[in-house]
Structures are given as structure tokens and as C-alpha cells.
Write a structure and sequence with these properties.
homodimer, about 525 residues, alpha/beta, Aspartate Aminotransferase, domain 1, Helix Hairpins, 4 domains, eight-stranded mixed sheet, three-stranded antiparallel sheet, 18 helices, about 10% strand, globular, PyrdxlP-dep_Trfase_small (chains A, B), L-alanine:2-oxoglutarate aminotransferase activity (chains A, B), aminotransferase (chains A, B), transferase (chains A, B)
């Protein structure tokens, strides 16, 4: 235990891994949740050692105890070092590379993806309406901008909107969903516009903070998972119930694993909800319709609220795969499944648009108890409203130019170019990684990431332990320092103990991706040689 | 007690008032905090009566118990009714008025205020860089836009930024603060850019969620206050410690009142922080330097973290008044005061720019424990980053066109026009209200609101009680139904028990404001006659 505590206090990633693992089955029985909580306390108290002046009012001794234990690997230690290295390069420090390749974050435009012209034209028009006189803007962009400005109070995007967003745009979102799901109705009053998917996810999870008979609410989250869920559950002092995705079955969901996880979790939590990320992040799988049906049946049996993270619904590359929304599948299954509670999240940061910095997205709330829904709508009012320019971006994504409209051809061409390029890179990256010694990478069916498994030489693992780093963190730092390539270690997402992975995006331009892969291969070959 | 419970379950506003009042001294001794908490539980359980299907997973019986008790009056019941009325008018329902006058929210552009050209030009340029070729954009707007795009990854506002915002803009903010405070240094690494002031306020309060010896953290908040604070403290299950502003002394802060409030609060909370809103919302006062010094001394003695809500720092109308930032005053006081912990909040939604819908602002963190600051910076990463277009807006506000630059004259003219108009309206509104029978209104020295006290006839109070409405809520609804004027009842902000107030903005154009005031006078005269 003492060694564990030391390890915890030393590295962010192993901390994250350990806290997660304590509530996951394969590392330690889930029933040991007390240990998890105790571990958290130990982590906090280890932080106290570094606490500073006695005179301060707010110190590590009296801070919110959930904050020190939050970990969010996609903005974690490796990225912090990458930013330092960028500064060193700027300051003329000599490195074996000239730039940092940020393969860590699904940050499309940062990796050279070109913004969709129609989105930016409409944004410019609503922002600065004098541009309505400019001939360079096509009439459909102007028409769209006018419609949106008419929906803003005082015809300005600088006005507050209703907290769930502009009614017109919520209606367009509902129409989009209805069309996407082959005509299954969507009610615009079930739509909440958000500043990216993350605030929507937090708003829904927040509703479930609850304790009875000494047990806190638990939420089933995949391992590996997008770490926003773990971070948010930690912040809210809720219990993550990890369920392992089946790497040997292309990261599919195995029902017996779900069942075991939820059964064991009842000893230390009230399981309330299940998070499913489809297409998967960081794992890139696209669930089959049959798999979605099985999950729905499982959630029904276990009375779980479904959080369907469907932000990559446009990002399907595998010709054999198709996106099935949880809502569509569950509605088609008929009663009782069609009456289940689902929240589905979407974002303008992903897809073909990649407008991360604009902060836009939406959530559809299906079958929520009307009184609970009122509470949700009340709770979001304290954020006033999501950014109006984000709402405008959402409008264009859900209501893109139609055939025959002036901007249609260019829009389709730009959209197709982005998605086709991603398709090529998805294939290239998994195929290339599979030629690396000790790498095995599932096909990237969707989303924006590859999550290969890597076999690390025992001497490398020993060296990592010596340096008090998780082996995959050790590997990621070594890669960064030697090549400038910034990836995220698998322990930041969770993984089967004893296995090592990392996440890389597939976003850089094809040429750059090829160069990166060759640099990566060289590094890996040398790494394996060094520690053999 | 039973009557109280009924009242609680009947109206939102009385609920809000009561929960607040229980922790305020004049209604009931502060030591009765248990009653407050019990009251909350009763409120929750009263909600359970209206709960729906047994089959739902998430119901009022197992929802986060803090959510039902959150109240946020600026988006509360009166506004909801106002929105309904707007729809009724659209659908041709006959009313004694043709439009709803939204005097409820500090929503500048919605009330006709014109956006600042330079802000919108730069926003348009960074959004759609093809506009760099357009002659209609002045060279300084282009130069600024180029500088900002260079600071964005991939030269796109669609990229994520660092979680505290773009370094260049944080540096500009620090320069702005340093200049504002007469040269007192500001470190850009103490600046966090935010999507409006609210998320910054929540981020800081979140750090203080803590319990020891069975006592939760308490935060001193003014009565009347901007209700975001009460709503956030409720959500975080922290204890609001209300301190009354002195209406008879133009809403100044009385040190003996602060002392009494904090002394009594120690029986049921750990007082951790004090919120001061300067210029005041809803009360419009501007604190004197002497008053700020006294508050700092008080906070030092009581070891309180200062949350300085300074979002109206541009909005000073009274020629005798001047804005003194807490940082400037505290730094000038020297040690030990200059070492105190302060977070100061600023927003682009107010001032002369009024860009509410863009969602932009910043917080300066002064003297925070470095370890705690690390935790804060970690915690904000889960929101990824504030909207980049909001960050760009902030940049222009803190680094506006300089004398001699092409856009300077127009910028100054637009800024002056807005602020001068607000100055005229601030005077007009308080002077006019003071001619109404039974109204007394302190001068609006700053911010964007008047908060007059109104004497209500006893029969009106009886009628309100019959309808189970707080008397000022009753009055606000009656005003809305008869005139279309939407104000916020004083009970939504807190007020001395037995007194009645409301908040109105001063934002509508002068002509419209005059018309509103005449309609208001007619209504009030008839209301008083009816209930005499």
C-alpha cells in the first residue's frame, strides 16, 4: 500500500489509472470501493505535503477534496511537456525535431483541416451584417444569416437567447434527428443547445448526484473511455463502474462483461446510468445494430439511464459499418424499450466541420420524467445561454445547404474531401501500425483516433518503474522527447491491466501522417532495441 | 411550519426567498440553519408528489437534491410568463399592449444597443479570413485579426486553445488591468479567460466545497444580490451567509452588519469567502475607496477569500463616483492586505460592448496558493477551452483601438454614445420613480439597473397571500399582464423582510424608457387605487 501511495503522489497518470482501477473488476474486486475512496483521501493528503503559506485562506488542506483527484488525460502531463517543448523550440533550443506534432487532441483545424466555407460565411454575416452588401457572399448564406438574425433578440448575436437555445435552431436540430433516424419523431422541446458536448454531458450527470443508504450513484463507463466521464464523476463524487470493451472483438461490448460489472458494482454504488461512446473514443469502433439492441436490453433490465455519446456520428469510415443512433434502435424495438430514458450528445467539434474552438453542440433528451426535465431546464439557466455563434454553427450543421441551392456543390465537395481524407488516414494508420514490431491495432471504423496496443520490453517496464512512471507514460514521454510526436498514454483512458496502449489522432494531412508514422517506426525500433 | 411548507411548494419566488432568509439574520437567527436544510428537504419531498411514472429511472425521488432548490430569479417565473405572452401576442391574442418590454435582463443588444463596429469587424475577419481582401475593413482591424489568427493553432478560430485561453490575449488582459490600476503589476499567468463571468465565478466557488466537523463552507453574499451566487451555492451545497446592504445609505456596506453576519454564521458554517458586487447588481451603487478598504480589512480579519464581481467596471454614471478595483485598493494598502487572496471577475456582456450572446469574460486570480492554483487550472481543463470568438472579443475590449489608429475615432464615438446614453437613463429612471407614489429609488450610480423600494397597500399584500404569491411577485405579474413590462421581483434578489422592491434595467432607448415609465406610472396609480 505504501508503494502505491508513493506512486500515486508521483505521477498523474498512475494516479488516474489507480483510482479508476480500484473500481474496475480486473485489477481489484469492485467490492473494494472503500479502498478507492481511501486511496483518494491518501492522494489528497499526499498533496498536503506540498501545500504552502499558513496565512492563505484557501489551501490544499481545505480545498474541495474532489478537485485534486480529477484527472483529464487529454490535457494531462504529456501535453503540458509538449507545450514546454514548443516554447523551447521557439527559444532556439536544439532538438532532434523542428516541431511538436500534436497527435493528442481531436483538434481538426489545428492539424490543418480547412473550415467549411458556408459555416464561416454565415458566421461572418450574422456577426457583421454590413456584409449583406458584399457580392462575394452567396444568396443562400445571406438568406440563412437573415433568418438566424431574425431569431435573435434585437437582431444581434450579442443578445442572450433562451437557456436551451434559439427555438428556430432547436427545431432544425429536431428535423435533422428525425431525418437521420428515418422519420422517427423528434420533439424540438427535447433539444438543448450547448457550448460543445461536454457541458451537456455534465448537465445530465449532475442530475444523478444522489446518495441513499450510504451508497452513491454509479455510472457505467467503458474502459478505455473518453476521460471526461471519469473526470466529471470524480468532480461530482459519483462512482465510475468500469466495463471493459473487448479488444479481441474490435472493441465491441460484451454483455457478460456488462453484467458482471453491474452486479459487482451494487455492493458499493447505486448504478444509475450507462455511458456508451459510439463511434468509440479512443477505440474507433462502430457498434452494430445488434450490439446497440443488446445494450438497450441490458440497460432496461438494470434500469439504467443511457448516455449515448454520439458526437462522431458523421465519422464512419469502414464500408461495412453504419451509424445506428440509440434512439432509432430503441424506438424501433418497440415497448418497453422505446420508453427508456436516453440522452444523446452531439458536437460541432467533430464530424466534417471540426469547429472545436467555436464551442457548439446539442443534447436530445428522450423520455425524461417531465418534472425532472423541468429541473434540468431550470439548472441550465444559471449558465444563461450557450454561445450564440455556436448555436448558429449548429444550425448550419443540422440544416446544411440543399441540392439546388447556390452553396450546395461547394459544401458537399468540402464535406466529402474532409471525410474521404479521414477514411484514407484511418486505414493507413491502423495498417501501418500493424507492421510495427509488437503493435496490434484494431481497424479504425469510425471517430478520429487509433488506439493500438503495444508490447513493451520488460526492461522498459523496469526503467519506467524506476522513474515512477506508468510504462505507457514513460513510452509517451520518450517518444515526445525524441520525435516531437505527442500522443496520449492508454492509462489515461483506462486499459486492461498489464496491457499498454496509446491514442493518436488521424487528423494530420496524409503526407504529414506518413512522415509521422515513419518517425514513429524509427523511434519504436530504437526503443525496442535499447530495452531488449 | 406547515403553512411555510405549503408556501414553499407553491411558488418559486417564495421558496427562493425563504431558503435565503433562513440563513439571513433578520428573518430568523442564522443559527437555525438546520431548519434551512430541513426546509430544503421538505421542498424536495413536496416535489415528489408531482413525480411521474414508476418505471422511470431518474425521478424526483432520486434526483440530485440540490437541483430542485436552486432558484435563479433573472430567468424565473415572471420571465417564463413573459415568453408565453410574447407567443400569445404572435398568435393574435388581444392584450392591452402590443409587445413585452423585457426590462428583466441586462441584455443590451436585445434592447436596441448597437454593437461596437470594431469588435464585429475583427470577429468577422477572424471567422472568414477571405475578408482580408475587402476594402471596407480598416487596416487596424485587419492587423488585429491577423495577430489573433496567428495566435490560433492552424490559424483557425475553430481550433481549441489552452484551457485558460490564448496566451497573447491573457497578456493583453494583464496589460489592461495594470493600466486600469495605475501601474500595479498584473501577471498574465493569473488570468483565465472564460465564457462570460458566470463560469469563472462557479470555478472559484467550486474550489471551496468542503466540509469539516460537520460544517460546510459558507460564503458571504450581499442582500440584495445577483442570484447567480445563491443558485451556485445551492447547487454546491454550500451555505450562503447573507449580509444586508444599507438601503438608507445608498446600498453601501455597513461593517457592523458584516461583522454580525459572519459572527452568527460560525454556528452553522465555516465562512470562507465574501462576494462583493461593485458596481452593484441589482442595486447600482458604486463603492467608495474607503468602503473597499473597510471590506478588505474585514476580510483579512475574518480570513475570507474575496470574490470581487467587477463586471460593471465601465458602467459608472455618477460624476461623484469612481471605480476602485479591489486589487488596486488592497495592493495600495500594503502588507498584510496586499497579500490577500482575491478573484476579480470581468465580462464582455456588460460595459459599453454588451456582447452577452458571445459569452466572454475573464478572471484575475490574485495571491492564490500555487498548489491550489494548479488545481484550479487542472479543473478547468475538462471544459476544454472558452469559445475562441469570445476570447477574441475580450482581446478587443482590453486592447481597444489607440489614438491615431484608423478605427479610433469611430470606436470612441460609439463607446461614448452608449455610456452617455446609459448615464442619462440612469438619472431619468431613478428621478422618475421617485415621483411615483410609494416609490423610493436610490440613485443609479453605476451598473445597469434600478432597484426601487415600493410600498404595497395592505389589501394587495392580502390578495397576494390569498394567491400564495410573494407580494412583489404578485405585483410583477400584475404589471406584466396589464402593461407587458417584465421586471424581476425584489424577492428574487433578497431584501429586508417586509420591504418590497423590483429590479428593472436601464437599457431600452430613451424614448422607449420614457414610454415605459409613463405606462408604469399609470399602472401603479391604478394598482394602488384598486387595493386602497
Amino acid at each position: 500500500m505504501e508503494a502505491l501511495v508513493n506512486l500515486l503522489s508521483e505521477t498523474l497518470f498512475s494516479n488516474f489509472l489507480t483510482v479508476k482501477s480500484f473500481v474496475s473488476r480486473k485489477f481489484t474486486p469492485r467490492i473494494n470501493c472503500n479502498v478507492s475512496i481511501q486511496t483518494r483521501r491518501i492522494t489528497v493528503s499526499s498533496c498536503q505535503k506540498t501545500s504552502t503559506p499558513v496565512n492563505r485562506t484557501l489551501t490544499m488542506k481545505n480545498i474541495n477534496p474532489q478537485i485534486p483527484v480529477i484527472e483529464y488525460a487529454v490535457r494531462g502531463a504529456v501535453l503540458i511537456r509538449a507545450t514546454e517543448i514548443e516554447k523551447e523550440l521557439q527559444n532556439g533550443v536544439k532538438k532532434p525535431f523542428t516541431e511538436v506534432i500534436r497527435a493528442n487532441l481531436g483538434d481538426c483545424h489545428a492539424m490543418g483541416q480547412i473550415p467549411i466555407t458556408f459555416i464561416r460565411q454565415v458566421l461572418a454575416l450574422v456577426t457583421y451584417p454590413k456584409l449583406f452588401n458584399e457580392a462575394q457572399f452567396p444568396p443562400d448564406a445571406k438568406e440563412r444569416a437573415k433568418q438566424l438574425l431574425d431569431a435573435c433578440r434585437g437582431s444581434s448575436v450579442g443578445s442572450y437567447t433562451d437557456s436551451p437555445g434559439i427555438e428556430l435552431i432547436r427545431k432544425h436540430v429536431a428535423e435533422y434527428i428525425q431525418k437521420r433516424d428515418g422519420g422517427i419523431p423528434s420533439d424540438w422541446q427535447d433539444i438543448i443547445l450547448t457550448s460543445g458536448a461536454s457541458p451537456g454531458i455534465k448537465d445530465i450527470l449532475k442530475l444523478m448526484i444522489y446518495q441513499s443508504s450510504g451508497l452513491k450513484s454509479g455510472v457505467m463507463t467503458p474502459i478505455p473511455e473518453y476521460p471526461l466521464y471519469a473526470a466529471t464523476l470524480t468532480e461530482y463524487d459519483m462512482i465510475p463502474i468500469g466495463y471493459y470493451l473487448d479488444e479481441s472483438n474490435n472493441w465491441g461490448l460484451d454483455m457478460s462483461e456488462l453484467q458482471t460489472a453491474v452486479n459487482q458494482s451494487r455492493a458499493f454504488s447505486h448504478p444509475r446510468a450507462i455511458v456508451v461512446i459510439n463511434p468509440g473514443n479512443p477505440t474507433g469502433q462502430v457498434l452494430t445494430k445488434n450490439n446497440v439492441q443488446e445494450i438497450i436490453k441490458f440497460a432496461y433490465k438494470e434500469r439504467l439511464f443511457i448516455l449515448a455519446d454520439e458526437v462522431y456520428q458523421y465519422n464512419i469510415y469502414d464500408p461495412e459499418s453504419q451509424f445506428f443512433s440509440f434512439k432509432k434502435v430503441m424506438k424501433e424495438m418497440g415497448k418497453p424499450y422505446s420508453e427508456m430514458e436516453v440522452a444523446s450528445f452531439m458536437s460541432c467539434s467533430k464530424g466534417y466541420m471540426g469547429e472545436c474552438g467555436i464551442r457548439a453542440g446539442f443534447v436530445e433528451i428522450i423520455n425524461m420524467d417531465p418534472e425532472v426535465k423541468k429541473m434540468l431546464f431550470k439548472a441550465i439557466t444559471t449558465s444563461l445561454c450557450p454561445t450564440v455563434l455556436g448555436q448558429v454553427t449548429t444550425d448550419i450543421v443540422v440544416n446544411s445547404p440543399k441540392e439546388g441551392e447556390p452553396s450546395y456543390n461547394q459544401f458537399i465537395q468540402e464535406k466529402t474531401t474532409v471525410l474521404e481524407s479521414l477514411r484514407i488516414k484511418a486505414k493507413l494508420i491502423s495498417e501501418t501500425f500493424n507492421t510495427f514490431k509488437g503493435f496490434s491495432c484494431n481497424p479504425v471504423q469510425g471517430a478520429m483516433y487509433a488506439f493500438p496496443q503495444i508490447k513493451l520490453p520488460p526492461k522498459a517496464i523496469e526503467e519506467a518503474e524506476k522513474q515512477k512512471k506508468h510504462p505507457d507514460v514513460f513510452y509517451a514521454f520518450d517518444l515526445l522527447e525524441h520525435t516531437g510526436i505527442c500522443i496520449i498514454p492508454g492509462s489515461g483512458f483506462g486499459q486492461d491491466p498489464g496491457t499498454y496502449h496509446f491514442r493518436t489522432t488521424i487528423l494530420m494531412p496524409v503526407d504529414k501522417l506518413k512522415t509521422m508514422l515513419e518517425k514513429f517506426r524509427d523511434f519504436h525500433t530504437r526503443f525496442v532495441e535499447k530495452y531488449s
